Amino acid sequence: MPDRQARHSKDCSDQLTRYITCPKCGTSDSLDSDDGRFEKRAGIQMRTVVKCTNCKSGLLLSLFSGLFFGSPKVISERQWFDMESKWSRHFDPTCMSDEDIIELGLVLHSMFGFVHGYLRLKAITDPTNDGSPEQSFYLNALRTMCVNYFIGTSPRPSDVNIRNVLEHHSLHHLVHPIDELLGTELGSTTFKSILTKYRNKFLTHELFQVSNLDNIHDQFNLRRHENWLAYHVLEQRLFNETTKLFYDLRERYPGAWLIPEDLRS
User: Fold this and answer.
1) Burial class for 211, CB neighbours closer than 10 Å (0-12, 13-18, 19+)
2) SS3 72
């Protein structure tokens, strides 16, 4: 009887030891479960790296991750992307050509900068101080990047934006939600037209003209509070969809993420 109790206690302890909760999204499961909530990726110096399949985060387990290993540490996104890129290239080296890695890698590198800027904007946003120089800086940068990504600034066929890259990889459908937003009618114009003209209001833009602002108000008077709110909602949705597009592409092509060695070459 004592031996049976001891074995039972050890079995329970082993089971608890391998039961973890993702601190980012709250997903919980055993590492040995067949449900696929966590994927083991590597063992590094008495530590285990796993991926949460719900929020796609990388988690680090060690002997000091909390009682029974239940509290893993979230690996920073840049470090996690570097790790997944190296694993993808090592275990599936034929999945992408060098040209595709460079093309998609530069897109991901730029879009992750967009995500960083959007997070900073949300961190400093103060409804009582709308229009501050800090907010204007991030909003101008995000608007300009979205125009460059999805609309383009030149009719020349040699100019390339995200649409061209997506079409090259048969992923043009991923931009459909963004196209729907851009085509939204606002007064006698569209969100796409206002967005393109609105980013020209900054002196740093080569097409800066004060008259463009007057044209916007003639077609859809943004001085009216309800109109500004309608535009603002569409703009936030555009930023959210652009962020989602980045994470979708990065998840589809982990090996395209540019690691430090790539950026130095």
Assistant:
1) exposed
2) coil
Token couple for 251: 């998840």
Whole-prediction pTM: 0.83
CA distance 22 to 38: 9
Across 61-65, 103-107, 189-193, 251-255, least confident range = 61-65
223, pLDDT greater than 90: no
- What is the chain's length? 265
Please give the span between the terminal C-alpha atoms of the chain, in angstroms, as a whole number.
66
For residue 201, the Cα-to-chain-centroid distance in whole angstroms is: 27
Residue 147, both tokens: 């125009």
- The string over 234-265, giving b where at least 16 C-beta atoms fall within 10 Å of a residue's C-beta and e elsewhere, is bbebbbebbbebbbebbeebbbbbbbeeeeee
Query: Per residue in 59-116, pLDDT tens?
Result: 998 765 544 455 789 999 999 999 999 999 888 766 778 888 889 999 999 999 999 9
The closest of 54, 61, 69 to 15, measured between CA atoms, is: 69
Q: Give the tokens for residue 35.
A: 């449900």
Q: Which residues contact 85 (CB under 8 A, 6 or more apart)?
A: 254, 255, 256, 257, 258, 259
